[in-house]
Amino acid sequence: MYRYLKSELISNRSIGLLRVFPFLEKTQLKNKSFFRFFSAVAVLSQNLDYSSGEDKQSFPLRLNSTQVCSNLQKLRTNPSVAIAYFKDCESLGFCHDISTYTAIISILSSSNRKSRLVSLFSNLISLYTNPGHQILSSLFFSLSQSGGEPGLVSFALDALFKAYRTCRRAPQEAVDVFFLLGKLGFLPTLQSCNFLLSFVADAGKDQTLKHVFEQMNGFGINLDTYSFTILMKFYLNAKQHSEAIEVWQQMEKAGIKPDSVTYMTFLSGICACKRYDLSCDILQAMVTNGMQVSPKHFNIVFSGLCKESKLEEAGKLLQIMSKQGVQLDNYSYGRLIEANCAKGNLENFNMALDLCREMTDRGIGITPRIATRILQGLDKLGLNEDIWLFFEKFKELGVVPDRVLYNFALNALGRSRSTEEAMKLIQEMRNSGLEPDRKHYTCLIGGFRNRGDAMSAQAMFVEMLKLGLKPDTVTYNVLLSSFFSNSLNDKAIVLLGRMIVQGIELNVKENTYGLVIEGFCKGGRASEAELLFKVLRQRGSLIVQGIGAE
Questions:
Q1: Alpha helix (H) ranges present in 203-257?
Q2: Rounded distance, CA 512 to CA 481, Å?
Q3: Which residues have CB under 8 Å from 369's CB, separation 6+?
Q4: Cβ(349)–Cβ(377) under 8 Å?
Q5: C-alpha span between 68 and 45 (Å, rounded)
Q6: What's the CA gap between 313 and 543, in Å, rounded?
Q7: Maximum CA pair distance of the chain?
Q8: Are 373 and 338 within 8 A, CB to CB?
Q9: Count of CB atoms situated within 10 Å of the CB of 459
Q10: Under 8 Å between Cβ of 544 and 521
Q11: Distance CA 341, CA 379 (A)
Q12: Which of 44-53, 60-69, 308-317 has the highest average model confidence (pLDDT)?
């Protein structure tokens, strides 16, 4: 090393890296700017080359493993400088061996610099298609014999597995290393084992994951709840519920108690596999084992039952969980209410109403969404006149209507021709801070149409435009039908022209063409209706509701 300090590189004003060692030994390095200076020195040493060709060839020989290890030992209290020196030696042509890697790994371990160690291993892995097993075996044997701090080998193994993932290498490479080093007695921490399991699981390697899990048990590693959860989640995501159940049974046999995350994972996966019988059993087991069943656990199962229209089972589960003290919420009730209303029959609708009453008795507030589902149920049953009554009742119960709920109420008032009440409701919306949108105005226009008041319907349309609301095909159709119903054919034609100018699509779904042809016929303008019909037939346009090409 002394020869290196007197080399031509130094004599030609290039500041050699190792010249700062005396300074390092005497100075506590607290200033980060020094590290930047040190890095600059390293770059300078690489870029300024005044040595002869002969010196270039002999220069790498001036550093040997013993010297590098000795210098690393001097820098043990300055790990950032140590890693910089380690890298610069390499850039100057020195080839690191097992001893120097052992030295730097020991330094990074004692200073808990795992990210730096991951980077170091990543570079090593990147140098080879697959670092030789002999190299890694020798390295970890050297680490175990180095007399370093307890946990040095485990610390290094943790970093090594993370390096494989950082380098985006195939999980099988990390697995091979795990098997190799494990057989030599070098075992990673439980946290690192779980990391490796997740690495393999994310890659979707079924058999490999199972093999790794079994080998961990074979090595005597005491796996925990999270280990089993990783394996269960993998099988459940693959819809292999039988295998997931086997893992659950293994966990119970091992005496490992599932935690809240495990239960949530298992419940979600089993429900995704539509094994609701098992999910109900799991809920019961949670209660039996004294675990707190949260609404979140319950709702996963409950939502699945409702989605599959298993309403009887859902109702029974609701009562069981309620009796066992599970704190139910409006989501639980809302799902069952929604499912019953969707059936469209009076029996299920009455069940939905009973659930609403049960909610209020328990002090659980009815949400606007639940109220909307009840109004939808009334609409399906044709009980339009009751919609307004229920709307008012919900407000008395403390429900604050949203736009959707207001829209249902307006639609009901429009059908019953109660336009005065509808106008009051529009004002109520504004007073509550909700500005009516296109759908609300369309309901108003429809209400005036139903009353036969085409001019008021037109006035609402104009007001809508003034507010900057853009009518859609449904809005235009409602106003068109109002004009035709009142024999205002000229206004209808003007409105139809506006639709075309505005680029409103006259689509088959909304039956705009059929509406116009029917309006012409009823208004005594059969010739115009026939002309439009022929044009449409030539274009191949189909008109719904029985109007089409013969």
A1: 206-218, 225-237, 241-253
A2: 10
A3: 334, 404
A4: yes
A5: 17
A6: 45
A7: 114
A8: yes
A9: 14
A10: no
A11: 10
A12: 308-317
Query: What is residue 439's DSSP assignment?
Result: H
Of these ranges, 32-41, 43-52, 346-355, 494-503, the one predicted with the greatest mean pLDDT is 346-355
Query: Tokens 């097993």 appear where?
Result: 133
Q: Which of 270-279, 343-352, 392-401, 444-453 has the lowest mean pLDDT?
A: 270-279
Nearest to 341 by CA among 316, 301, 365, 306: 306
Does the predicted model carry a pTM greater than 0.85? Answer: no
Q: Quick check: 520 and 489 in contact, CB under 8 A?
A: yes
Record the tokens describing residue 528, joined without a space: 């115009």
Residue 200 to residue 194: CA distance in whole angstroms: 10
Closest to 174 measured CA to CA, from 230, 234, 233, 130:
130
How many Å separate Cα 172 from the centre of its chain? Answer: 27
| Residue 480 CB contacts under 8 Å (≥ 6 apart), including other chains | 492, 495, 496, 512, 515, 516, 519
What secondary structure letter does DSSP report for 418?
Answer: -
Please give the mean pLDDT across all residues of the chain.
81
**d(C-alpha 414, C-alpha 400), whole Å:** 21
CB neighbour list of residue 372: distance below 8 Å, 6 or more residues apart: 404, 405, 408
**How many residues are recorded in the chain?**
550
Angle, vertex CA 14, rays to CA 12 and CA 18, nearest 5:
125
Q: What is the mean pLDDT of residues 58-85?
A: 83
| Residue pair 140/153 in contact by the 8 Å Cβ criterion | yes
Per the structure block, which two tokens stand in for 374?
Answer: 């009840």
| DSSP for 381-435, written as a single string | TT-HHHHHHHHHHHHHTT----HHHHHHHHHHHHHTT-HHHHHHHHHHHHHTT--
**Do residues 545 and 481 lie in contact, with contact meaning Cβ atoms separated by under 8 Å?**
no
